[in-house]
């Protein structure tokens, strides 16, 4: 029998609307049109102006035939056009593919083909690599290329497109009648992982997840209205951990930063009253280790978020000395960036710095609007004991999880096996429920906030004629957090040098993926010939680094 609460109470337009971050900028432009939205060099724009430009972008794309299901790729640093791309592209119904500006031409070409990009918006700084990537495309479908000439950029301006960005926006209607997606499950963004095997995987985000993680960011940080957010974290990393949408929801200020440098960050904090920023450990380390004179006049109370590696005691202590409040989060591309937070307790403040560092080094507990995050036995999918010792795999389920991998049903099925998203990270869970990573089953190296697939680097090493066997693991690095370390076993009678190995890698890999250290010798293997990476991690010092 139908419940009385299900009878004659249908869902309709009056009582139900799809969740989407597009509604955030619409409301903010209505309520706070005059409030400052974007700071970039000498440029200042209000939320009313940014919203109008987003409408123009959506309109111009629509006039060029871009609609639902089309991909618009962007190769942009943290500049105003990147903020606009996070709204204008999906207002046209299309999907934003924000490309990593540090990638090589071959990888970019694959992504353009795989994502079937129809439009490419490119900053002049990256025109060279983008031109090579376009030439390497296997697809023959037309690609509209739009040049962005950023006045803050001081390098050589190279144009490869048929239109300039401002010219393109001028052709759009500022009153463009965009609409929310018909279904909150519609795709809003496409992001690529560093694939552990073969090519990178395309992670598809939906409007619902983007909105929900953006709201969770507000809740985890107690982020107030009109927060001033400094863009140290690249917006191409999981759509800036969803913070373009978060800042819009709070009617905050996007302080754009083209290049991450300590002086520029401190200047921005002082000049613009920055209240919040996110970044990889390298960014926070950069600030902690900056000369004292550079820190003069920096106000206390700035909130910082760190992910990618656990914050060591020295970083926590250094941040405290500057008066900064550090929050540790954890996540993956597949869960929209951060999906757990090491939620701090007042009682921790009374502890010594070493104990606080130990507690804050944990990956923590689920985000507010994530349904669940826990450590499960990889075989049975049963929760491991909360003893801080029994290892399992971190798994997620709920609202903050991707639609799946683009054009890869097998990988999608495997990732969601048993009704959980499998992170690949091995961890323990403590009696208070807090999660802590102990090892990485995916063999991913996180260097300066960038994910590097060890298998991708190994594949290149094996192409060297002198190499018999190769293995790559993370090596702790004071600046980058960790960097690739290559263990190389040579063929009988073959000779080569570390410099030659590095030069070989540079021919095939983006710079940040190239090994910083090369170790020659016999590689430890099991009886069946499988390389024992854990032994190599011990040799490189990365096994100890994981266990903070």
Describe the fold and architecture:
By secondary structure, the protein is of the alpha/beta class. The chain folds into three domains: 46-176, Rossmann fold, CATH 3.40.50.980; 221-290 and 300-440, Rossmann fold (3-Layer(aba) Sandwich); 444-546, ANL, C-terminal domain (GMP Synthetase, Chain A, domain 3). The chain is built from 18 helices and 26 strands. It has a nine-stranded mixed beta sheet, with helices on both faces. A five-stranded parallel beta sheet has the order 4-3-5-6-7, with helices on both faces. It has a four-stranded antiparallel beta sheet with strand order 17-18-20-21, with no helix packed on it. Helix 1 (22-31) runs parallel beside helix 9, helix 2 (47-63) packs across helix 3 and helix 7 (207-221) packs across helix 9. The chain is globular.
Characteristics:
548 residues, alpha/beta, Rossmann fold, GMP Synthetase, Chain A, domain 3, 3 domains, 9-stranded mixed sheet, 5-stranded parallel sheet, 18 helices, 30% helix, disordered C terminus
Q: What is the tally of helical segments?
A: 18
Strand order of the largest sheet: 2-1-11-10-12-13-14-15-16
Q: What share of residues is helical?
A: 25-40%
Shape: globular
**Mean of pLDDT:** 92
Q: How many domain units?
A: 3
